[in-house]
């Protein structure tokens, strides 16, 4: 009995050793043995905690056996004995090694992309720096590249810079469509640079300050100049609103055809939209085209809303521009060129109408004049403005050879019943009505002279900024009117 027990124990030990050898082979192959490899009655081999089938130690092309998998086929105790020896298998990389190689390649590729982006960013910064150097040089030289000191003043240089920037960004934009992203970025970047000058235009005001011992002192503090503090934020807001109006026409029902590229009865390839030819002199402006049945009511409502917004922006910008121009000093050269007689400058018929009526109506006078062209309107504006300042100067003639600054101060003391004062006031109302009736009117001779001889940098910025926004708002209104004109023409034909 003892011999049988000993032989049984030896056979059991041999079985355990075979199982252990098979288990060691399996671990050498790189995967965890299935529970079927281990004797269920033997608890001598502990389980490996946290061993994942997707870990770096798993075999790359062998089936992964997991204790939690219910789809793995049961493996026989001697299934590994029929396989070839692991020493004869070809060397392969583990999943962790492959993942590491792929991650290094991806890192290198991302690094290359990041380097390219960094280089592009540095190139753009270098380009902006060169542009800033050019702007700064022109500002200091007064647009005189010879450096001989014959350039214009700083105020005129900044005014010209804003005007030229507007022509660069919006000069070729003759349609109701979003602005090019590059041009939009250029406009914002350059205007921020030019308008930053206003951050350093300040005025000093007195302020009372109480000390800890109760002593009251008056100290001087700086704040933005009043005209810049009031007008510049308003102009920035109008600028953003105009850009928003253009961006709102990204999805539209109308399109544009270049004038002369298609006939009035032709249609776009693949479309039945009609092209209506306008009878005007602006042949370079693209002609809007609408569907055969006209625009939808939603599109018309959108156009009307944007037209009203642009019209209000135009009025606000024009009011700011007029206010800034009125505050500018009148150059001595313009005062010297004023006619001696306002009556001769304005004409006999207009003079009699202005003086002969008890209640002056400028709109009725403009209706009687029947102005046919913008050139005639501009000539009338120049003559009315010259006569106005001539009569104002005569109203203060009691002072011997006064300067124009004295004339402005003495206007409050002038007798309101004086004939020259009455004529000057009526000429001012006529000029205002003329500019309201012809908003596209060019600058008068006095306005041009003021801008050319202005030395105030803050006024130059406000005047030029409001002027370009006024022009853009007017153009947007005109473009919307063109679309409505074509829409009415198409619907009337239908």
What can be said about this structure in brief?
The protein has 494 residues and is mainly alpha-helical.
Structural shape: globular
H/E series, N to C?
HHHHEEHEEEHHHHHHHHHH
How much helix is in the residues?
55-70%
Strand order of the largest sheet: 3-5-4
CATH homologous superfamily of the domain at 154-314 - what is it? PRONE domain, subdomain 1
Strand % is 5-15%
Entry keywords:
single chain, 494 residues, mainly alpha, Methane Monooxygenase Hydroxylase, Chain G, domain 1, 3-stranded antiparallel β-sheet, two-stranded antiparallel sheet, 57% helix, 5% strand
Please describe what this structure looks like.
The chain is mainly alpha-helical. Among the domains are: 13-92, no CATH class; 105-151; 154-314, Methane Monooxygenase Hydroxylase, Chain G, domain 1 (Up-down Bundle), CATH 1.20.58.2010. 57% of the residues lie in helices and 5% in strands. It contains 15 helices and five strands. It has helices spanning 2-29, 95-141, 154-170, 181-195, 226-247, 297-327, 332-336, 342-346, 348-356, 362-369, 374-395, 404-410, 419-437, 445-453, 457-493, and strands spanning 202-210, 216-224, 255-257, 274-275, 287-290. It has a three-stranded antiparallel sheet with strand order 3-5-4, covered by helices on one side. It has a two-stranded antiparallel sheet with strand order 1-2. Strand 1 (202-210) and strand 2 form a beta hairpin. It is globular and about 100 Å long. The termini are far apart.
